[in-house]
Amino acid sequence: MIHTGLVLSGGGIRGVAHIGVIKALEEHGIYPTHISGTSAGAIVGALYAGGVHWADILEFFKVIPIFHAKKFARRKPGFLDTEKFYDEFKKFFPDDAFESLPKKLYITATDIIKGELTIFDKGELIKPVLASATFPGVFSPVDINGSYYVDGGVLNNFPIEPLQTHCDNIIGSYVNALKSIEINDLKHSYNVLDRAYKIKSASESIAKFSDCELIISPEELCEYATFDMRSIDPIFEIGYNSALDVLKAQGYSKQTPIN
Length: 259
Fold this sequence. Notes:
Elements: E1 4-8, H1 17-27, E2 34-38, H2 40-49, H3 54-63, H4 86-90, E3 104-111, E4 116-120, H5 126-132, E5 142-144, E6 147-151, H6 161-164, E7 169-173, H7 189-206, E8 214-216, H8 232-249
Parallel strand pairs: 1-2, 1-7, 2-3, 7-8
Antiparallel strand pairs: 3-4, 3-6, 5-6
Helix pairs in contact: 1-3, 1-8
């Protein structure tokens, strides 16, 4: 059996583009067997690995109350209490275990105390997914067995590594293409710091693109902010159309349409 890996980067709401990529892949008869994701890619990847249809994953991002007042953190370092989202995910993962998923899944998260990246692929599922998507400073760290975790993208925003020893080929979906700027765009010190961080993260991820058979990385996503909840539909379409372009360029043909 041919094992195909799909690696999904972080990127906040831009991660909705991953859902469009999945739709395009399925329309071309490509069904990944192994998934690796971080941050928003961890959420999309977990739902997909759990057998959730791409349309239902898209709906999940539209209806989940990410900024609901009831989610505000109290006596925790963050504006929103990440663990209060547990029940939303429990609806999709009643067994709350990696072993219950139809596809093999790898989730990465950053141990904020030790400064180390952890790869989760067995045992409890929901907390690692929540931890991986915990944007530092906005969401509170997640306690897993006495260690505290935040966004996996802090240390590895394109976690291809877990797939390399298990997959015959790998497809990458990266939603943090580096935006072209002018020197006049760097008006303040925090602009320079933000740019430096993005350059470092992007360069580390782009260095891994050569290990992918296909890579989808739409530059148009640069125009959308991390938490731009009003742009879910156009972001999805960008991911879908970009994947179609890449597949066409590589000679893949559409199969029976999937609704």
